[in-house]
Amino acid sequence: MSDVMISVITLSACQNDDAILRNDFDGPHEDGSYKWAIQTEGGIYHEQRGSFKGSPEPSLLVEGQYQYTAPDGQVINLLYTADENGFHPTGDHLPTPPPIPPQIQRALDYIASLPPRDY
């Protein structure tokens, strides 16, 4: 998704007619790197930077964060990276899976300890 498209999506989430306090764009540069940040007076903030990594086939690494206040008053802050392995968000508001019950974990450990089988 392009920088402009992300910016449009971010700005469309603005409540009412919030003024834009910050709108910085830098890039894309010759090496493909870029960074941008947007902030509104309503408390929405989104920044992102991207660069290519790896050789001989480089892949795009994107890192960013956004923050806003949810309708219930909770401040939502999400950090993310995106690379050849997908989108990786982190944030206190994201659900987490329950722990694996001890009996199931013992069974999984036992299965993992068995020698491989040829079929």
UniProtKB/TrEMBL annotation:
Keyword Signal: yes
TM segment ranges: none
InterPro entries xref list: CHIT_BIND_RR_consensus, Cuticle_Struct_Prot, Insect_cuticle
Domain of life assignment: Eukaryota
UniProt KW keywords: Cuticle, Signal
Protein name: Endocuticle structural glycoprotein ABD-4-like
The encoding gene: LOC113396339
